Amino acid sequence: MRAVERAEGTLVGIAVGDATGRPLEFKKNIDEEDHVSGPTSGGSPFGPTGSVTDDTQQTICVSKSLQDRSCFDPEDTVARLIDWYRSNPRDIGFLTRDVLQKIDAGKEWRLASYETYRQTPSGQEAGNGSLMRCAPISIAFSSDMESRRSVSRTCSALTHFDPRCQWSCVALNEIISEILTTGSVSLDEVVSRLPHRAPNELIEALESLPLSNPGSADRSGYVISTLRISLHYGLTATNFEKGLLDAVNRGGDADTIGAISGAILGARFGLDSFPNEWIECVQHTESLRQISRSILTHRFPKFTNENNKYNLNDV
Predict the structure, then answer these.
(1) Is residue 228, in this structure, part of any structural domain at all?
(2) How far apart are CA 308 and CA 37, in angstroms?
(3) For residue 269, what pLDDT is reported?
(4) Is residue 311 part of a domain?
(5) Domains in the chain: how many in total?
(6) Is residue 305 domain-resident?
(7) Is 186 domain-assigned?
């Protein structure tokens, strides 16, 4: 399979997974007759078939910035996130909202993100709002590990400064980029390449995969829980459709679990594995397909935390 098919599958998989999981978001104890069989209408607030949420909308902000600027530009990415925030999106996480509100009021993004991280009550400061948007980085920097890690961490820290958020983005992008370039991935090798400062809880979550009982796994918006359950379904499924439906039909933070599982499944199986009717009914799939091709083929300049002013190595 060509890399372009995997890249297209990654970004389109986010939108398709988001739209498929959206009607089940935060539902619990879902009866089998209420399972979805693809993108459908519903949810709270109600949305028509194929409508997407902040997972896809933030992904577009990141990917369009990469495409238009031909580099990772934190200020430009923040500006796009601010424009999205000002559009009054109906689905936005409270950490993302709080940080963007401070930036919109004039505070520099790093200070706004760090203050929110320090001021948020323990147990609520590591949501999945940056994990949901980070996958375009795995495509743009698929052959540059140092930049990929630095961009992953900085893009997370725009709104989610917690080290667990930053390093979860690193881990997800390590996994997707490995699939994009080789067609497969070894989690043991990914773990072995993560530096010692990566959070122990993240390492333990990766080492616990695959899960023996995924039905009992935490499906909240906690970043490491979201990454863990999404990787389980994304890496163990035998095809795109079944993997995505299994991922979302237990509810919880189903749109984000669907989006991240969709990115992993899309990278593994490629866009041709998607049901055509899913692609056709979901918002933004054609633009994401075009963006994925553009950022895959562009040679992006290096971006490291050591040689730019967004040094996060003390975190």
Answers:
(1) yes
(2) 46
(3) 98
(4) no
(5) 1
(6) no
(7) yes
In whole angstroms, what separates CA 12 from the centre of its chain?
A: 12
pLDDT tens readout for residues 106-165: 999 999 999 999 999 998 999 999 999 999 999 999 999 999 999 999 999 999 999 999
- Dist CA 122 CA 312 (whole Å): 21
CA separation for the pair 295, 284 (Å, rounded): 16
Burial class (CB in 10 A: 0-12, 13-18, 19+), 269: buried
Q: What is the Cα–Cα distance from 273 to 243, expressed in whole angstroms?
A: 12
| Cα(53)–Cα(284) distance, integer angstroms | 11
Instruction: Specify the 3-state DSSP secondary structure of 42.
Output: strand
Q: Name the residue type at position 272.
A: D
Instruction: Provide the 3-class DSSP secondary structure of residue 165.
Output: helix
Q: Show the 3-state SS of 59-128.
A: HHHHHHHHHHHCCCCHHHHHHHHHHHHHCCCCCCCHHHHHHHHHHHCCCCHHHHHHHHHHHCCCCCCCEC
Q: Residue 22 is part of which domain span?
A: 3-297
The model's pTM = 0.96
DSSP code string of 207-252 = HTPSPS-GGGS--SSBHHHHHHHHHHHHHH-SSHHHHHHHHHTT-S
For position 19, which CATH number holds?
A: 1.10.4080.10
